[in-house]
């Protein structure tokens, strides 16, 4: 087959997208074929849906709005596979979060689909379909997340991971230590110091803390400064005495407790 000539290829079950590269190899070109295959596999290794920067933007917006539905647009290669996808997505639920299909269709992903996804703040999911010319560039410019799959369970798996992430609280608190207040005094600059002894774990500077009296939270604050004797330190361990300065004023009493937390997302 010479350059510019048409031809017929047998043994391929799906239509080849326009612009695809086809290699014609001799029987003894196994080494070249192997290298091309490895290169193709490497190119296909991509980040997961929840690792995509565009999903991070969707995640932040969902968290701030309090939405419990993940909007998606579904495109598939046939009506049969589209119905199967819709049925599978309807079953994906996680702690009150579910999938909402805002649009659906058969055929390649188009510019119209990108516009719809941008308007509805949806993820575009394609199953056994490609992208029309210019669609990928438009998606990047519009900040629209487009994902295409050839295996249905992979699509469902990534949507499950997305719902799992959305259902996770925006911020999680982990207690890292607590202390009992032994005395209070005021420095020359007016700063109020809570003289404390660490009962469990550690107290750490810049961490969130609660001042508690008789199991009732008096105030929520942040540890502005920690001192051991005359030294300013970043943390104080179990059994050690320290001076704690909070970022807000609090009317604490001897016997009140400090609970220190690490906040993570």
From TrEMBL:
Pfam families: IF-2. Keywords: GTP-binding, Initiation factor, Nucleotide-binding, Protein biosynthesis. GO terms for cellular component: cytoplasm. Coiled coil: none annotated. Residues 53-160 form the Translation initiation factor IF- domain. It comes from the Bacteria. One of its GO terms (molecular function) is translation initiation factor activity. InterPro entries: TIF_IF2, TIF_IF2_dom3, TIF_IF2_dom3_sf, Transl_B-barrel_sf. Belongs to the TRAFAC class translation factor GTPase superfamily. Classic translation factor GTPase family. IF-2 subfamily. This is Translation initiation factor IF-2. It comes from candidate division WS6 bacterium RIFOXYB1_FULL_33_14.
